[in-house]
Design goal:
Elements lengths: L1 E8 L4 E2 L3 E13 L9 E6 L6 E6 L3 E17 L10 E7 L6
Antiparallel strand pairs: 1-7, 2-6, 3-6, 3-7, 4-5, 4-6
């Protein structure tokens, strides 16, 4: 698995750089020290890398995967007001170097 974007988020209204995805990809959300259900991490997608739409929200650490049938932009982060004070999360989007499916 190749990491495409990864960062630790400790302030809200913060997202990773956008990456273009097609096929299967991995989403990793882990605690950066503390992570309660008061924090919401959002995965977003865009067709033009400008207008973003929410794909999924997470309120607990997770290892998950998604499938994108078209070539789209993705990013992961915490929207304004969605990070509980004093918390941080480590987010990552990865994928295989080559789609085998």
């Amino acid at each position: 698995m190749t990491t495409l974007v990864s960062t630790t988020i400790s302030t809200d209204d913060t997202f990773t750089d956008a990456v273009r995805l097609e096929g299967y990809f991995n989403v990793s959300i882990q605690s950066g020290g503390s992570f309660t259900t008061a924090t919401t991490v959002t995965v977003q997608r865009s067709i033009d890398n400008s207008t973003w739409y929410d794909v999924d929200d997470f309120t607990t650490p997770t290892e998950d995967y998604g499938f994108e049938p078209e070539l789209m932009w993705y990013r992961i982060g915490v929207k304004s007001g969605n990070l509980n004070a004093g918390e941080s999360v480590v987010v990552r989007i990865g994928r295989e170097d080559e789609d085998r499916h």
